[in-house]
Specification:
Blueprint: H1 22-26, H2 29-45, H3 50-55, H4 61-74, H5 80-85, H6 90-94, H7 101-117, H8 122-138
Helix pairs in contact: 2-4, 2-7, 7-8
This protein binds protoporphyrin IX containing FE (HEM).
Length: about 140
Amino acid sequence: MSTDSTNQPENQPEDQREEITAYELIGGEARVRELVDRFYDLMDLEPQFAGLRALHPPLLDGSRDKLFWFLCGWLGGPNYFIERFGHPRLRARHLPFEIGTSERDQWMRCMALAMQDVNLPENLQMRLMEALFQTADWMRNVPR
Ligand code: HEM
């Protein structure tokens, strides 16, 4: 083992440290895919998410790909979504669907269960849920 510790983050000035992204903490692309697949499997299977499911197309393949591409970039990994579709404009892209507090909360609950099911570390789950709530809440477009 090397005794040279100059490459360790605590021995580098703060502005030269490499940020560890949430994408890396999750474990990269395959794990993000696993999370998204579990999210849509639950949406498909669980009666409590029937309202959310009904907003989506009969086949979820396209939705799975888009959320996977988006989350990779959102988590600090490759910008697959932007490469394909340009700026995310997420709120505008959700305007065709009526999203109120019930839809927001179903989306969040479905994501929370998916994160538990794929065994993300608990502190990462909490961090991501907080950040996702801001995005999901911003997506509301009907006053109910
Ligand atoms: C707040 C509750 C939400 C509801 C009810 C909802 C619902 C939907 C629906 C019905 C679609 C269309 C699916 C398709 O075209 O196959 C969609 C697309 C999408 N959603 Fe959501 N969503 C919500 C929150 C979120 C959040 C929080 C994110 C990101 C963190 C997100 C990311 C996306 C992406 C990236 C797309 C694809 C957009 C496109 O290219 O058209 N959604 N969503």
